[in-house]
Amino acid sequence: MDLLVIALILAGLYMAWNIGANDLANAMGTSVGTGALSIKQVIIIAAIFEFLGAVFFGKRVTSTIAKGIVPIDMISQIHPNIVVLGMLAAILAAGFWITLATFYNLPVSTSHSIVGSVLGFGLIAAFNGTIAFSDIHWVVLLKIVGSWFVSPVLGAVFAYVIFSVIRSLFLHRAADLPLVEKKFISLQVVTACYIAFAHGSNDVANAVGPLSAGLRVLGMAGGNEIPIWVLIMGGFGMVVGLATWGYKVVETIGSRITELTPTRGFSAQFATATVVLLHSYSSLPISTTHTLVGSVIGVGLAGGIAAVDLGVIWKIISSWVATVPIAALTSALIFVGLEVIWL
Amino acid sequence: MKDYIRSVFDVVAESPFLPLEAHAKKGVLAVEKLNETMEAYCAGDTARVEELTAEIDKLEHEADIIKQKIRAGVPASVKLPVDKKDLLSFLKQQDSIADFAQTSAYWMTLRPCKNLPDEIKEGFLELSAGTLKTVKMYDEVIDELYKLLVTSFSKEEVKETLTLVPEVEKLEHEVDVMETNLLKMIFENEDFIGGAGVCHLVGLVSRIGTIADKSANSADRLRTMILRR
CB–CB of B5 and A102 under 8 A? Predict the structure, then answer.
């Protein structure tokens, strides 16, 4: 096998590990915080459903990352290795930025990083004259960026409605409130599966999108758009990430958000999973974590949470305003370096 | 150890309502102690008065710490289900309960209970018990706060809380009546008690009476906070 493909696989696995260790853990933290599930149960549920989501519903977003933004088929007509190097540069840049963000506790999204870095490769290809600037699929990019605004808002709206319904149907009528909360604990087991599935379907692309692009231009995709083993590998990497590091993150988050009761946690998770899955269906890479924050705010605005810190919104916006150009620039620089070495 | 996490869960800020309850409990406990202090005072047990005053002082200080934490915990970016100004003005009133329990106890240490007619002693015991009763009623209102939050302000719970507030006000009014009667009695005995004694006792009456006033004010602010939500 091509050395570059091996590099793409390794970088993809690293990214998948990162996603599992942090983003998946973030999505699952709510279940532990409300006391619905133990850490062990969360990891088992997450492992199964994240994997299923990645393998059976991860194709669409992966395809967007692989060839939706940059016209890789057009570039590979000049030389397939340009695409392979570009995609390697992209995933390295995204991985680097994510590692840095994790180190400094910045709420950076892996989806935003990979989109930014793939764009960075497209821009440098255009700058080099390999393609025209207008060949970059700007409309797709616009849709993606638009979805980054829409998804947290949609999460907030869904969660607001769901919690308001729960509130008027159960909380305001119940004679025995603890019993209501108890019943929602079992419902939260279902939403835990749901959110893991949704997360897997959307985020696997961030790890294996570049690899898929490389395989495609090298003719190693075997006629399929995205080979199934690629998605399996991505799902596997994320599960390993959760099991080896993510459990700590789940623990930390779970202990921080004890304010969320099962009815609140259910509302936030159900809304998030639905929004994420809708975006997976629409082939749009979004941030699960940001959507979850939107949903938590929605529950808060519906009066479900005693104190909601809206300052987080600015943190999120500033982090992703920074992410796209930084990831793009790093990716372009790495590409130039690799080009000098390889081509 | 530093957490290597990219998370935005600080969106769920610490609730000020649990500390609010804890803060109220400190005040209630201080007034309970104050009632004991009054009993010791009337029994002429100066040592016990000093001891209890120190305990009340400690409770008041603990209440202050909780108050400061609550205040620091509601920066501009935090959104609460109630108006922040309402919450803070409610907190201020509630804080006065422990404050005035402290001053009342302190006031008793200034001058021992010398040759007081029994009817005045009884009047003070009655006043202190009445105040405690008001504060206990107030405590029941505060217990509703928790239910309000878990049901996220259901109509039933709001109604229940709002029916308790006038109860506090009723008891506070009873304390007002006791105050007036006791003051009258003190002035009727002014020749016997002496100028300095009258001055001291009048101060004590007004301080203890203020505790009941503050409980009623606090319950009132709570009502405003719930209704203006």
Answer: yes
Question: Can you tell me the distance from the alpha carbon of A289 to that of A24, in angstroms, rounded to the nearest whole number?
Answer: 9
ipTM of the prediction: 0.79
Residue A343 pLDDT grade (very low, low, confident, very high; cuts 50, 70, 90): confident
pLDDT per residue over A223-244, tens digit each? 667 899 999 999 999 999 999 9
Q: Report chain A residues whose CB lies below 8 A from the CB of B14.
A: 259, 307
CA B207 from centre of chain: 12
Radius of gyration of chain A (CA): 20
Query: Would you call B106 exposed, middle or buried from its count of C-beta atoms within 10 A (0-12, 13-18, 19+)?
Result: middle
DSSP A175-200: S-HHHHHHHHHHHHHHHHHHHHHHHH
Under an 8 A CB cutoff, do B6 and A316 touch?
Answer: no
Verify whether the Cβ–Cβ distance A296 to B11 is below 8 Å: yes
Confidence at A1, pLDDT banded by 50, 70, 90:
low
Instruction: Note whether B1 contacts A: Cβ–Cβ < 8 A.
Output: no
Cβ–Cβ below 8 Å for B17 and A306 = yes
Question: Helix, strand, or coil here: B85?
Answer: helix
Q: Is A202 left (phi over 0), alpha (psi -120 to 50) or beta?
A: alpha
Task: Give the span between the Cα atoms of B90 and B93, in whole angstroms.
Answer: 5
**Mean pLDDT in residue range A197-219:** 95
Q: Which of B4, B11, B147 sits opposite A297 (nearest CB)?
A: B11
Under 8 Å CB pairs connecting chains A and B tally to 128
Question: Closest residue of B to A262, CA-based?
Answer: B150
Burial of B167 (0-12, 13-18, 19+ CB in 10 A): middle
CATH architecture entry for B14-227: Up-down Bundle (1.20)
Q: Could you read off the pLDDT of B132-150 as tens digits, one per residue?
A: 999 999 999 999 988 888 8
Residues of chain A contacting residue B8, judged by C-beta atoms under 8 Å apart: 26, 107, 289-290, 292-293, 312, 315-316
Domain range annotation of chain B: 14-227
Q: Is B146 on the interface with A (CB under 8 A)?
A: no
